[in-house]
């Protein structure tokens, strides 16, 4: 017990060294670290079992190594989205009209962290794993929508970034007066556009099953993915809105006696 009590002042001292406007930085860095571990872990899993047990969905090994992973992913995502979205809504600020300017500034930095985590997840899902999927289908048989890469890409990576985008949207709507007054077009587009990539997955799988089997990057059936990614440019509008409001708040702090 003595050791614990001696450690508390040191911990408090460390916390106090963090600037007040980025008090959520430790949680942000932990989130970044967790996502990195997840993505690298899934890629290593692919490297270990994709070729040996992921080429034929009718084999018992596929059920053991890939469908089991599929069910685990769905369970984890269901728990995660219920917990995080539920928390953000239940703990919403019901007195935004009396929000202190310094607290509002801190929340804008936290929103930026949410957007950063979201775009990091979109990057992993839409770049490495997505491009890998095309390469996979150029050399392996697309015998089912549940392939070794789809189970990770379509049924985990895409839903995960949709959930994180929803977190950013909910955080802004429930904790910042500017976004609580109305629906922000840049914020909504930045979240809704990449979400439509997940919707395009169903059309993509239908097309590859009943339309054509070849896997070309520029095939018309992939155009929806590109359009969805373009909506991510709305992030620039989010930052512009935030900077404009932060300038007003900082000017107000300087003028305050």
Describe this structure in words.
It is a single chain. The chain is built from nine helices and no strands. By secondary structure, the protein is mostly helical. The protein has a single domain (19-50, 59-91, 102-255), classed as Particulate methane monooxygenase subunit c2. Chain: C (Glutathione S-transferase Yfyf (Class Pi), Chain A, domain 2, Up-down Bundle), CATH 1.20.1050. Helix 7 packs antiparallel against helix 8 (223-230) and helix 7 (185-210) runs antiparallel to helix 9. The N and C termini lie far apart (46 Å). 25% of the residues are buried.
Question: Which regions have little confidence, pLDDT < 50, spanning 5+ residues?
Answer: 1-14
Instruction: Give the proportion of residues in helices.
Output: over 70%
Largest sheet: none
Distance between the termini: 46 Å
Count of distinct structural domains: 1
The CATH superfamily label reads Particulate methane monooxygenase subunit c2. Chain: C
Q: Please write the CATH class name.
A: Mainly Alpha
The number of E-state strands comes to: 0
Keywords:
about 0% strand; mainly alpha
Topology:
Blueprint: H1 2-16, H2 25-53, H3 60-90, H4 101-139, H5 150-175, H6 177-180, H7 185-210, H8 223-230, H9 234-255
Helix pairs in contact: 2-4, 3-5, 4-5, 4-9, 5-7, 7-8, 7-9
Concise overview:
The chain has helices spanning 2-16, 25-53, 60-90, 101-139, 150-175, 177-180, 185-210, 223-230, 234-255. With 257 residues, the chain is mainly α. It is elongated and about 70 Å long.
């Amino acid at each position: 017990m003595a050791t614990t009590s001696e450690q508390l002042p040191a911990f408090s001292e460390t916390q106090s060294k963090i600037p007040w406007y980025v008090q959520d930085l430790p949680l942000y860095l932990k989130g970044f670290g967790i996502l990195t571990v997840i993505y690298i872990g899934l890629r290593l899993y692919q490297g270990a079992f994709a070729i040996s047990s992921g080429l034929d969905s009718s084999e018992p090994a596929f059920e053991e190594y890939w469908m089991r992973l599929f069910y685990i992913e769905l369970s984890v995502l269901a728990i995660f989205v219920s917990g995080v979205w539920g928390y953000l809504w239940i703990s919403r600020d019901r007195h935004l009209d009396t929000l202190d300017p310094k607290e509002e500034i801190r929340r804008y930095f936290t929103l930026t962290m949410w957007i950063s985590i979201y775009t990091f997840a979109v990057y992993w899902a839409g770049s490495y794993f997505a491009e890998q999927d095309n390469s996979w289908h150029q050399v392996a048989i697309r015998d089912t929508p549940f392939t070794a890469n789809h189970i990770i890409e379509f049924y985990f990576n895409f839903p995960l970034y949709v959930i994180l985008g929803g977190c950013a949207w909910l955080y802004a709507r429930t904790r910042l007066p500017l976004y609580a007054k109305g629906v922000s077009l840049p914020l909504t587009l930045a979240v809704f556009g990449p979400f439509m990539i997940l919707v395009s997955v169903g059309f993509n799988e239908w097309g590859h099953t009943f339309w054509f089997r070849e896997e070309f990057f520029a095939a018309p059936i992939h155009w929806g993915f590109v359009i969805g990614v373009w909506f991510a440019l709305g992030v620039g509008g989010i930052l512009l809105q935030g900077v404009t409001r932060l300038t007003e708040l900082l000017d107000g702090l300087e003028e305050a006696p």
